[in-house]
Specification:
Length: 245
């Protein structure tokens, strides 16, 4: 995909196009197979920050509801009560406290640490070309969903034998290598993609930074994060990591 189409997709997904031009983009995505694949890739990646925002909103709600619940339960306990009832109430309250604290810990256990695991949230692998019967693609999708990255890597290698220019297969092969602890090999895939013009350019740049984060190479990670453009969907997370390093 050329630079003009990349800018067009950026403007579309950032809501910068007039309605008529936005409809033209959608119409082209429905009729142009190459553009359709790039459009679908970008749409998948754009959905990821919204999922993260929903997760953060849930955590905030959980904390608020938990605090209000505890206040209500404490208010319900009378000052004078029979010892047996007192004990039952406090046992129930303690159980509630434990449950809420555990839930909050589960969703925020990495909140005070800047780690690879905290930010490495991968979009599901999905090949979008209709009528494609390549078995290795289905195998790769299933294995990746199950976090069986060894098997997914092998399946993606088969996809690339049949389709050497499949950008999505290359990108997810890099993710598999990264998850398997082969960060340098993963970067060898991500860096050319980050320098190219595909719909995965911004995501590849983000994964270059994540690869250094996984290696705990702080300076290289900072340098990679600073290259992420302010218009990228990963910009906010990049700034968070920079503050934590």
């Amino acid at each position: 995909m050329n630079e003009r189409d990349t800018i067009l997709l950026n403007n579309y997904f950032n809501g910068l196009l007039p309605p008529e031009e936005a409809r033209d983009v959608e119409a082209r995505a429905a009729s142009d197979p190459v553009f359709m694949e790039e459009f679908a890739l970008r749409k998948e990646m754009e959905a990821f920050p919204r999922k993260e925002a929903e997760r953060e909103a849930f955590i905030a709600t959980l904390k608020t509801v938990g605090a209000e619940y505890l206040e209500e339960k404490v208010a319900e306990i009378p000052r004078i009560m029979v010892v047996r009832n007192n004990m039952r109430r406090w046992i129930a309250l303690a159980a509630s406290v434990t449950l809420i604290a555990t839930a909050i810990w589960f969703f925020t256990r990495s909140g005070d640490m800047t780690t690879y695991q905290q930010y490495a949230h991968h979009e599901p692998l999905s090949f979008t070309v209709m009528g494609d019967n390549l078995v290795s693609k289905t195998d790769a999708e299933t294995a990746f969903e199950q976090k069986n990255f060894d098997r997914a890597l092998a399946a993606l290698d088969q996809v690339l034998v049949a389709e050497p220019d499949n950008v999505k297969a290359k990108f997810y092969r890099g993710i598999c290598l990264l998850e398997l602890g082969r960060a340098a090999e993963a970067r060898a895939i991500f860096e050319p993609l980050a320098a190219g013009n595909s719909a995965l350019r911004e995501d590849a740049a983000w994964y270059v930074a994540l690869s250094f984060l996984r290696e705990k190479n702080t300076e290289a990670c900072k340098a990679a994060l600073l290259k992420i453009d302010s218009g990228s969907v990963h910009y906010k997370a990049a700034q968070e990591i920079l503050k934590g390093l």
